[in-house]
Amino acid sequence: MRARIIVDPEVFQDTYTPNPLPVRHEIVQELVSKYLLALERGHPSTDITLIYGKYPGVVGIGKTTIARLTGRLLEETAKRRGYNVKFLHINTYGYRGVHDLVNAILESLGAAVAKRGISLADKISHLADILYMKNLRLFLVLDEVQNLFLRGRDEAENLYMLLRIHEIKPSRIRGTVGADYLLIAQDSKILSLIRAMLPQVESQIGWRIPVEPYTTRELFEILLDRARRGLAPGSWDDEILERIACYYGRDCPEAGDPRGIARKAIIALRTAAEKAEARGASRITDLDVSHALSEEAEALVDVSMLEALDKHRLILLLAIAELTLEKGDYASTGEIREKYEELASLYGEKPRKHSQLHEYIRDLRYKGLIIARPSGKGVRGRTTLIRLAQEIPPDVARMIIRSILEGRMRF
């Protein structure tokens, strides 16, 4: 019977939301407190919370996770205090426009929906009636909201109508009845879109929460939380998590993909666990992580780059690959030189001198094939520590380099 490492697959799903969040839970707590206070004061909310990525083009950094947990905790806490709150999360990407969004909201509240022949204002008025009859406060999260603005000014104005539901039916939206809105946008471009297309909404935005990519430490905390929840005890160690966190952390000098994306880091941990299970192992190894990271990289190994290297650079890179495979970590320049000299003799070459090797190492590092860092505590003296680039599985690199070298020896 094969060892089972993943004991709870749900923990690694994109929709999984831990409580508490290992990182940024204070944002959730502040948002829940904000909405509860508005609810207890008995006034319909007119302001909007906006969560967006601080930098363009970076996804998977926790915006939706913050919103989901806020909605869930708000609904639960409000219920314990005697209030009727309904949390609803809608990704606007899957809808043609605000008409369809309002239809989806009505359907989620159990209301009959006539999908044709009714104006948007009438639909929103009907929504206000439903909220009034159910004595309900709707907490609505609209994800990827920039999509509505990108469809043009008409859709932007339709969104404005939904956000101003308290003005469409003021007789219904009062006290604890009404709707609170949390909008999620991919990045800060949303601020320019709102300013250009709906300047009247800009003044309604109460809390603006720019979310940064995760640091290495934050990713480690996230992976540690997932490992404790979803992996068998003893099947992983901190070093495995640290390596994945460093690969994706925005502040790690050795990162292979330094965009701080938690989603990718979690997938890499799950993939490494699956590969260990497939081997029948009971623990995740450094090699499993190498394979997982390589599958996330754009390519396993740039074979054309390796083929363009001269013989001694290839032998040196082979020495680094073998030591990375043997040690599962960095090797000192002394260890690398010793391994290089051994391999050079094996391939019938006279080893190069120290100054030449230093130049080769600098060149391999520039090409992104290796990573190097100065030694720190625990290493006697000062030296440079080197390993194969994180995304390159050392066994795959070794096989390709050997093949290239053997091919050259035949001619």
Describe the protein's architecture and organization.
The chain is an alpha/beta fold and 411 residues long. The longest helix has 18 residues. It is elongated and about 90 Å long.
Write the layout of secondary structure elements.
Elements: H1 25-41, E1 48-53, H2 63-80, E2 85-91, H3 98-108, H4 120-133, E3 137-143, H5 146-150, H6 153-163, H7 165-168, E4 178-185, H8 189-197, H9 199-202, E5 205-211, H10 216-230, H11 238-248, H12 262-278, H13 286-296, H14 303-307, H15 311-327, E6 331-332, H16 333-346, H17 354-366, E7 370-374, E8 384-388, H18 394-409
Parallel strand pairs: 1-4, 1-5, 2-3, 3-4
Antiparallel strand pairs: 6-8, 7-8
- State the share of residues found in helices, binned by percent: 40-55%
- Tally of individual helices: 18
Number of strands: 8
With strands numbered from the N-terminus, the spatial order across the biggest sheet is 2-3-4-1-5
Strand-residue fraction? Answer: 5-15%
Task: Specify the CATH class of the largest domain.
Answer: Alpha Beta
List unreliable stretches of 5+ residues.
none
Structure class: alpha/beta
